[in-house]
Amino acid sequence: MTQICGVQSWCLGVVLQVILAALLHRGFAAAQTTAASHKDPGRPEKGNYVVTSSNGTECLLASMGLQLNITFNSVSENKTVPVIMNLQPNATKHSGSCGSDTASLRLSTDTENTNLTFVFTLNATSTKYHLSEVSLSAAWKDMKEPVSAVNSSLDSLRGTLGYSYMCREQQTLILAQDVSINTFDVQVQPFGVTGEQFGAAEECKLDEDDMLIPIIVGAALAGLVLIVLLAYLIGRKRSHAGYQTI
Prior knowledge:
Structural class: alpha+beta
Low-confidence stretches: 1-5, 27-37, 209-213
Shape: flat
Largest sheet: 7 strands, mixed
Radius of gyration: 26 Å
Keywords: Cell membrane, Disulfide bond, Endosome, Glycoprotein, Lysosome, Membrane, Signal, Transmembrane, Transmembrane helix
CATH class of the largest domain: Mainly Beta
Order of helices and strands: HEEEEEEEEEEEEEH
InterPro entries: Lamp2-like_luminal, Lamp2-like_TM, LAMP_CS, Lysosome-assoc_membr_glycop
Main location: membrane
Subcellular location: Cell membrane; Cytolytic granule membrane; Late endosome membrane; Lysosome membrane
Number of helices: 2
Protein name: Lysosome-associated membrane glycoprotein 1
Oligomer: single chain
């Protein structure tokens, strides 16, 4: 019986380690994509944006929630402050352009004097596209001076021509030391658009990992239950065998 209890304790310890590792993985991933904020505005509302070509047909589709994460010199507080602001789709204007191997989406708000541009690049040989550049300029009322940043060496939101890229998890695009963009529930298709509907979605690795963790935890718990049940049945059989009549 002592041996059986030992097996059960060892199994429980292994399963707990698996669960703990899975939870730590999720927490670490969240920590990597969570920026410090003066006040957390919560998850942003998702906006839907369509760019049309010169002949009037749709050439870029985008659907996503956006947060602007900027550290700047505050007039009201007279110090440097980090602020996260959600981009409000109903107060955001959009435009853009499409070419054979580049496409852009420009978002702007009049009330907050903010301009945000996404540039996508297509590799015609591999038929793969990616987000290659993001630029941001902001002149908020509380800023002592306007903020401007650009990152033209990005390699994010990778997809295949004719397909859309999808990622439900939060991602962070770093533009500068004090400027970044948080994206949520992204689905984009900058090339190979036919009509107003997204092509079949290619999901990001973050979403795949997020689905894998519950599967691992569930399998570990199922394994623990099975081992404990087998150990109980073996122990019960041995117990009955010890009291057999001679």
